[in-house]
Amino acid sequence: MLTLMVHLELGHPNTKLLQLAVDLAGQFNADVMGIAACQPLQIIYGDSYVPGDVIEQDREDIEKEIREAEIEFRAALKNHRGNLEWRSTVTLGPLARYLADEARCADLVLTGVDRNRSVFDSSRHVDIGDLIMQLGRPAIIVPSDKVKPSLKRMLIGWKDTRESRRAALDALPLLKKADYVAVCEIALEGDMAAAKTHLADVVDWLKRHGIAAKPIAALAAADDAAQLDALAAEQSADVVIAGAYGHSRLREWALGGVTKDLLLRAGRCSFVSH
To answer: What residues does 111 pair with on adjacent strands?
Structure first.
């Protein structure tokens, strides 16, 4: 049985994220764990003085936002027959670390991205790059402005790397339920023959799992990120599946040149695995 961990952002509606959670929970009869985390007001000891009423107001705001997030989570999944669980914390540590630790009991993590958030506010917002690098679980990243999240049409961004193989394997349960699957590799002209061989093998592997997939070997013409985005639009893809890799933080994606900004900011869901 699948267990979903759904990360809700505090202080903002999580409508699109929860829509996808409801759909997936219903399809897989999954258990669902809602989770939220934030940091309290950071007090830097020195010459500055933070009034006690400011600290108290911050505490009250945190309690209110956590309570509202739980209410939103339970209301969205009120008709789900599987098990529901809620977890939350206030921590001085990185939010990504807490979420990654709690993901030990999940098969798949759902999180959202707010395009308009401040990069300087780490008290309520999780660094998605750090989260993906630490999770040890696949994740679906849901844009906040997606009209209605869907996983019916999937595009696998392929490069012959460990990370791409891992992502495709992790995505198998979802791929089996998709209406359309394409596997795309962007390659230089001299590498096209090898790319077509890679894609043939991947398509055959998917076929053995009962998944019909279309291979697409695309000649590199511009920035890989822009080209993948164009291919995803051309295929009417609801989600791009890709492997993630990096060092201490997520800085690159397994489809060489596909940037963090493309997959986290695009107007479609991203399924990533590290």
So the answer is: 141
Distance CA 218, CA 109 (A): 30
DSSP track, 92-155: SS-HHHHHHHHGGG-SEEEEEE-TTS-TT--SS---HHHHHHHH-S-EEEEETT-SS---SEEE
Phi, psi angle pair for 196, to nearest 5°? -65, -35
∠ at Cα 158 (6, 101), nearest 5°? 30
Mean pLDDT estimate for the chain: 86
Residues whose CB is less than 8 angstroms from the CB of residue 41 and which lie 6 or more positions away in sequence, other chains included: 50, 54, 55, 58, 123
Alpha helices in 142-269 (DSSP H): 162-170, 172-175, 192-208, 224-234, 260-265
Q: What are the φ and ψ backbone dihedral angles of 219, each rounded to 5 degrees? A: -75, 125
Query: In the numeric block, which tokens belong to residue 124?
Result: 């309520």
Q: Taking the complete model, does pTM exceed 0.85, yes or no?
A: yes
Query: Kind of pairing, strands 108-113 and 139-143?
Result: parallel
- Strand 239-246 and strand 250-253: the pairing is antiparallel
Both tokens of 83, joined, read 């098990």
What tokens were used for 4? 């979903």
187-217 pLDDT tens trace: 999 999 999 999 999 999 999 999 999 999 9
Both structure tokens of 144: 């906040």
| Residue at token pair 């992502």 | 167
Q: Are 167 and 254 in contact (CB under 8 A)?
A: yes
CB 114 within 8 A of CB 12: yes
Kindly state the percentage of the chain with pLDDT values over 70. 84
